[in-house]
Sequence to fold (987 residues):
Amino acid sequence: MILVWLITILFAGGIGAWLAGKSNPELPRIIALATILLDLFIVILMLLAPGVLGLESANNAVLGQPGEWLVLSSYDWIPRFGVSFIFGVDGLGLLLVALTVFLGLMSLGSAWHEITDQPGFFYFNLLWTLAGVIGVFTALDLFLFFFFWEVMLIPMYFIIAIWGHENKEYAAMKFFIFTQVSGLMMLVCILLLVFFHYQDAGELSFSYFELLNTDIPSEFAFWVMLGFFLAFATKLPSVPIHNWLPDAHSQAPTPGSVILAGVLLKTGAYGLIRFTIPLFPEASQAFAPTAMLLGVISILYTAKVAFAQNDLKRLIAYTSISHMGFVMLGVYAWTAQAVQGAVMTMLAHGFSAAALFMLAGGLQHRIHTRQMSEMGGLWGAAPKMGFMALYFTVAAVGMPGLGNFIGEFLVLLGSFRISIAAAAFAAIGMVVAAVYSLIVIQKVFHGENKHNLVVKDLTTVEMICFGLMMIGLLWMGLYPQSMLDMSEPTLRSLGVLFFD
Amino acid sequence: MYSNLIIDLMQIIMLTAGSVVVMVTAAFKRDHAVVCGLTVFSLFAALLTFVFVEPLLPMQATQLLLIDEYSLFFSNLVIVGAIAVALLAYPYFEKHAIQNEEFYILLMTATLGGVVLACSNHFVSFLLGVEMLGISLYAMIAYPIHAPTSAKFPLEAGIKYLILSALTGAVTLFGIALVYAYLGTLAFDEIPDALAAAGDLGAVFIIGVLMIVFGAGFKLSLVPFHMWTPDVYEGAPVPVTAYLATVSKAAMLAVTMRLILASNALDFTPIVFILTLMAAASMILGNLLAVMQENVKRLFAYSSIAHLGYLMIVVIASAGISNAFAVEAMSFYMLGYFLMSIAGFAVISAISDCEQEMDSLEDFRGMFWRNSWLSTVLITVLLSLAGIPLTAGFIGKFYILSVGVEDGLWFLMSMLIVGSAIGLYYYLRLIYIMLQKPEQGTAADRAANSLPVGINVVMAAMTLGIIYLGIYPAPMIATIQSLASAF
Fold:
C-alpha cells in the first residue's frame, strides 16, 4: 500500500499544481515542492526507519516470494487476463525509488526560477513523470509494468514539446517514437511469454513471480528475450539505438534533462536486471557476449563523438550514453561485482549527470547559448558555478573518492572475470572520459572571456541542490557499502553469480 | 407467443415508430429544436427498451433476425452513436439556410438500418440493413447541397459514396446470389450444413463469399475499397462524418463477423489469404497516407482505415482461436474505437458549423492554450488512437496483440507494429500543433468559449468512457465476455 501512496501522492500533487496554476502562478511550484518533500520523507522513512511505517526491515513479503521484499502488495485488476496490481520494492527497487524522488527534488530546484511560462501544467507533467517512473520501479506484474513504462513517456513528451528549445518538435517526436516502438515489441514478447506460461501451467497470469520459471521452446526463447532487450536497450540507451538521446536531452528544458538523464535512463538498466536476464537465463547467457560488445562500443564510440561536440548539452548527453555503456557491460557480465558496479554507476551517474545538466541548463538560461565556442573564461565571472562544474566533471571522469569511480571500477573488476578483452577496452573508456570532461572545463570556464559575457552566479536554490548532490556523490564514493548492502540480497535472489 | 416476438423486436419497432413520429411532427411543425428533441427522445426510448428485451434472449425473431446479447450490444452501440450525432447535428445545422428537420428523419432510418444489420442472421436482412443504412446516408452526406453556401463539398462526397456504394452493393448481391445458387439457403446458420451436403463446390462458394467480403470491405473502408473514405469524410458535414465513421462501421462489422463465424468461411485458405492481404495493406497504407494530410477529417479517415485493418487481424485469427475470444476482442476494440471517433469528431464539430468548418491542421494551432477542455478531449482521443496506456485504445490494442500472439499471426503483427509506429507520428504532430503557443499560429476559431450543452455532454461522456475503459476495464470485459460466449 505504501508504494501505491507514493505514486498517488505524486498524481494528486500534479493535478493540484495544474489547477492551482490557473489562478496563481506562484502556487504550482510550492505544491510540487510539498508533494515531493512528502514523498521524500516517506522514502527516507522506508530507508532508515521502516518500523515506523509498519514494515519489517527484511522480508515482509505478503506473497511469500523469494528475496527480501520490503513491501509487496497485490490486488486484482483485470482477472480475465490474469492481470493484477502487484507492487513490490526490495533493496534495488528502493535505491532507485529514492534516486527518483531525490532527483525529482533536484529537477524542481532547477525549474524553480527557470519555468515561468505555464508553470501549473509544467509541474503537472513533472510530477506525473516521476509517478510513472516510480511505477516502473515498483511494478511486478508485466502488464502493470508496461502500463507505467508508457505512462512515464507522455508527460515527458509534453515537457520537451512545450518548454524545449529550438528543435523541440523533432526531439520530442523522436524520443516518443523510439521508446514507443520498442515498447510495442516488448508488449508482443510479454504476451508471448504469458502465452507460453499458459500452455505450460494452464493458468493465465502476468505476475512476474509466476512467469519466472516458464518453459519457453528454444526456438522462441531468443526472440522473446530480444523484444525485452530492445525495449530496455533503447531506453538505456545502447548503441545503435541511442540516436534519440542527444536530441532529447539537449532540446529538453533543464528540469526535463535532469529527469531524463538522471532517472529515465535507469529504467532501462533496471529492466535488464529485473526482467530480461532473470526471465530468460539461457537466452541471455547466449546473448551476453553480444550485449557486452555493444556496451563497450557504446563506451568508446560515444566518448569519441562527445569530444567532437560544440553544443554543451549534447556533449553531456553523449557522455551519459558512454556511462550507460558501463552499465550494460556490467549487467551482462552478471557477476556480483559487475552488477553491483552497474547499480553504483546508475546511482552515481544519476547524480553527476543531473548536476552537469543543471549547470549546462543554467548556463543556457543565463547566456542563451549552448555552444562552447561562444563561452570561455567564465570562472572569473561565476566562480561558484566553475567550482561546481569542476567537481561534477571530476566525478564524471571517475575520480576515486566519488561515486562514479566505485561504479566503474566494480564493473571493470567484475567483467574482467568474464571477458578480459571487454574489460580492457572498457578501461580505455576511463581515459577518454577524462578527455571529454576536461575539455568542457577548458572551453567553458578557463581561458579568456573573449565574448565579455556577464554571468550571474549560482542562486541559493541552485547552491542547495548542488550541495546535496556533492554530499551524495561523496557518500557514494567513500561509503558505498551502505548502498551495496541494500542491493546485494536482490541480486542474490535474481541469480547473479556470487563467487563466495 | 407473439407478444414475446414484439418485445424481442422492441428496439426496431421503437425506431420505426420514432421515425414516423418525427416525420409527422416535422410535417406539421417545422421547428428544429422540437424535431431534434423528439429524435433524441425516441432514440433514448429505443435504447432503454433493451431492459425489456434482455430477459428473452436469445431469440430468433422471424427467420431474418436473431436477437441475442451480441446483437443487443451492437444495437445499443448504434443507437448511442445516433444520439451523439443528433446532439452534434443540432448546433451544426442551426444556421442552415434550408430546412434541417429532414436530417433527423434520415438519421432515424439510418439507425434503423444499423440495428437491423446488428441483429441480422440472414442474407435478406443483411441486404435490407445495408440498403436502409446506405440510402439514408446518401441523403445525409449530400444534405447541404441546396444551401447557398456549404462548408465543404457535399455533392461530390454524396455522388462518390452513392456510385461506389451502388457498385459494391451490386457485387455483394451477385455474391449472395452465387452462394444461394449453390447452397440453396440464405440463412447464415445453415451454411455449414449446406456446404457439407453440397460436396465439392468450394470454389464457387469462395468466390461468392469473397464478393460479399468486398462489399463489406467497402463499408468498412479496407484497402483496396478505401478510396471513397477521405473524400467523403471531408466533404460531408461533420456530424454525418461522425455517423459514417462509427455507426456504419460498427453495424457492418457486427454482421460480417457473424457471417464469417457462422459460415466457417475461414476454413478456406483463399479467403484467409485475401483477408490477410487486405488487413496488412489497410494497416500500412492507412497510416502512411495519413502522414501527409493537412486536413483533420481526412486524417481521421485514413486513421479509420488503419484501425479497421487492425480489427481484421481479429477476424482472421478467429479461424485459429476460439470464436468467443475473437468476438470479445472485436467487440471491445469496436467499443473503444466508437468512443474515440465520436469524441474526436465532436471536437471538430464544436468549432465548426454549416457555414464554415474548421478542419484544417492550422485551425488547431495553439488550441491547448485557448481552450483546454476541447484540447484535453482531443489529446485523449489521439492518445487512445495511438494505443497509449490509460486509454481504451490501449486495452483494445492489447486484445488484438493477444489474439495475434495466440494464433501466431507474425506477419500481421509486424504490420501492426509498423503501422502503429507510423501512426504515432501524425497523432503526435496534431498534439504538438495544439500545444504550440498562440502567437505562433493563426487565431482562427469560433467562440469556443461557451459550447452548446449537447456537445459538452457528448464529449464528456465519451472521454470519461475512454479513460474509464483504459483504467478499469474489468466490468465491461465481463459483459463482453458473456456476450461472446454464445459463439
Residues 284-500 of chain A form one domain. Chain A has two domains: 1-279, 284-500.
